[in-house]
Amino acid sequence: MQKISASAFSDTKPHYEILDGLRGVAALMVILYHVFEGFATSPIDQRFNHGYLAVDFFFVLSGFVVGYAYDDRWKKMSTKDFFKRRLIRLHPMVVMGAILGAITFVIQGSVHWDGTQVPFYLLIVAFILTIFMIPAIPGTGPEVRGNGEMFPLNGPSWSLFFEYIGNILYALVIRRFSTKALSILVGISGISLASFAIFNLSGYGNLGVGWTLADYNLLGGFLRMIFAYSAGLLISRNFKPMHIRGAFWKCSIAIVILLSVPHLGAKGALWMNGLYDTLCTLVFFPILVYMGASGVTTDKASSKINKFLGDISYPLYMVHYPFMYLFYAWLWKNNLTFSETWPVAIVLVLGCILIAYLSLKFYDEPLRKRLNKFLRK
Q: Taking all residues of the chain, what is their mean pLDDT, rounded to a whole number?
């Protein structure tokens, strides 16, 4: 096995604590969005309506962090080393999400949403596809839930699919771009994404696309990733911190508000919601990342909050949805309302946070530590 120098794995650069905390805040908003998804009849009446945009915020963050961490390391690190690092960082929780998805699918009865029984061998196929990040084609056997998801055992894995594409493009192509060329990529992809959103190519009246291979979802998911990821990279190259007091709290409040705004525009004016999605993705999220990177924590309590939120953010995102499947099945089978189920919803959210923390401490961190030691041999 090729040896990897210790310097290739060192993390001696200053850490952006507030960005970690903001990622955690956005992850919590995703959980709330998915909880209330169970009570919605359409994207228009969904509470915490714009929670799907947290993914775009994550992509901007990823681009910024990857650019900051790796842009100046390529003389000491090979492309293969980069891919190993990113796999070690991301893939253990992909596997954990697939395991939890398979378990909850069996608990639910191994059935499609319409009640059709799914053979066990198709569950195994779906599990293998998920851990290797191979999307399921809608309507085929491995698409075991029957609702068109790329990764039916753990729906949010779709964003990791695009995250991996972003990492591959960065390592092979984009890192070689001049700042001017990167700016052009950001501009072109931004215009394309804005057009996709405002002209409602998703058909949903929003930018919540990428989770399926149906219709224009693949294009929409790619546009969401390539703009946000490239924008984050561009910010990292041109970053000059400003002095911002209370950056974490100001940015956190902004994220909560932006992701909670009700759907804008009636069915005849869906362009209004597309315009809002565009402004969030192209303008507000890059500004928030810039502000978050500029801020610093000034006391131990704030540092602990940011660290905790940052630590659980990715595990929480990757483990919560299998339990949402069970929650939805229970809601819809019994035709329950939020007023009847809010205590269960609170327990569900807190339970997901606990499972994320336990997954982090007893699975993700130990496994990543072992893998890093193994790759240094």
A: 94
- Tens-digit pLDDT profile for residues 290-337: 999 999 988 888 899 999 999 999 999 999 999 999 999 999 999 999
Question: Residue for token digits 């699919």?
Answer: 161
Interhelix angle 17-37/321-334, rounded to 10 degrees, is: 20
Cα torsion 163, 167, 170, 171 to 10°: value is -170
Helix spans in the chain (H): 6-9, 17-37, 54-70, 79-107, 120-131, 157-172, 179-198, 217-238, 247-260, 271-279, 285-294, 300-319, 321-334, 338-359, 365-376
Picking from 287, 230, 361, the residue whose alpha carbon sits closest to that of residue 22 is: 287
CB burial of 348-359 (b: ≥16 within 10 Å; e: otherwise) equals: bbeebbebbbeb
DSSP 177: S
Distance (Å, whole) CA 322 – CA 304: 28
Q: Assess whether pLDDT exceeds 70 at residue 9.
A: no
User: Going by C-beta distance under 8 Å and a sequence separation of 6 or more, which residues neighbour residue 41?
Assistant: none
- Give Rg (Cα) of the chain: 20
Residue 74: partners with Cβ closer than 8 Å, 6 or more residues away? 175
Residues β-bridged to residue 212 = 149
Q: How many CB atoms neighbour CB 372 within 10 A?
A: 16
Residue 270's CB is within 10 A of a number of other CB atoms, namely: 23
